[in-house]
Amino acid sequence: MAGSVIAVARDATHRFSKTPMPEIRIVAGLGIEGDAHQGVTVKHRSRVRADPTQPNLRQVHLIHSELFDELAAQGFSISPADLGENITTKDIDLLGLPRGAILRIGDQVQLEVTGLRNPCSQIETFQKGLLGAVLVKGNDGKLIRKSGIMAVVRSGGTVRPGDGITVAYPAPPYLPLERV
């Protein structure tokens, strides 16, 4: 599976949307340099309140740009970084990846997929009805979380729009993504 980076973003403060950048620097074991979610332990405010010593499984947030097309068909207007992602991708089935898959971006960066992003109520403040569009029930009654995936940094470097992405799968059996 091969795809590409459409956009990159970061933000030093905890806001819903991030700021698009021409490039981002990714640091092994920490996340995006200059981003509020960078660190070895959790930085997401609700998780810090629960237990600030938890490992940070949410160092990098990725969303597939195809979601924006799906949402546009439902009347929403979403651009890269609007939903708080660090990396917007194209032609990678992010939601279909197993836990432990490695995303290789460019020549250096390796991100290990840890799980699904669980959309929070702030998404409703951003655009009314959006939570229901990215958190839906499947035919089996289970929740489908469409708002991207989370990863930790195994190998750092610089990421820019246009960089290629390849996927290395872990040894089977594949573990499905769960919310992190």
Automatic annotation (TrEMBL):
SUPFAM superfamilies: PK beta-barrel domain-like (SSF50800)
UniProt superkingdom: Bacteria
Cited Gene3D superfamilies: PK beta-barrel domain-like (2.40.33.20)
InterPro entries documented for this protein: MoCF_Sase_C, MOSC_domain, Pyrv_Knase-like_insert_dom_sf
Gene Ontology molecular function: any one: catalytic activity
Residues covered by the MOSC domain: 19-168
Signal peptide: none
Record-linked PANTHER family: METAL-SULFUR CLUSTER BIOSYNTHESIS PROTEINS YUAD-RELATED, MOSC DOMAIN-CONTAINING PROTEIN
Protein's name in the database: MOSC domain-containing protein
Species of provenance: Paracoccus aestuariivivens
UniProt lineage: Bacteria, Pseudomonadati, Pseudomonadota, Alphaproteobacteria, Rhodobacterales
